[in-house]
Design a protein that fits this description.
Elements (H helix, E strand, L loop, with lengths): L4 H14 L11 E2 L8 E4 L2 H14 L8 H14 L5 H8 L1
Antiparallel strand pairs: 1-2
Keywords: DNA recombination
InterPro entries: DNA_brk_join_enz, Integrase-like_cat_sf
Protein name: Tyrosine-type recombinase/integrase
């Protein structure tokens, strides 16, 4: 899946720091119960992700609603605008 090189580097760093990169079936977005550095097995639930995004949007002073699909659409739009992907790749991503 194509992504911005900064995102790729950040994900690789996260996988290394958390140790999840060495676990082939590890959850990419585990829950964090409140203790710094402690991650648990169950993945984030959809409603938890939405609440987290909404908090970040409000903290940034953005007044419009945003969610996971907002980031997906923005990422695809910017990738097309910067000639990083073509329409065939976008169609594959959207599946």
């Amino acid at each position: 899946m194509p992504c911005h090189h900064n995102l790729e580097a950040s994900l690789e760093r996260d996988l290394e720091v958390t140790g999840l990169g060495s676990q082939p079936k590890a959850v990419l977005f585990p829950t964090a119960p409140g203790k710094p550095g402690e991650l648990t097995e169950p993945p984030l639930q959809q409603n938890e992700v939405y609440r987290m995004i909404r908090r970040r949007v409000l903290d940034a002073g953005i007044g419009t609603a945003a969610g996971c699909h907002t980031f997906r659409a923005t990422g695809i739009t910017e990738s097309l605008r910067n000639d990083q992907v073509n329409l065939d790749e976008v169609e594959r991503i959207m599946i």
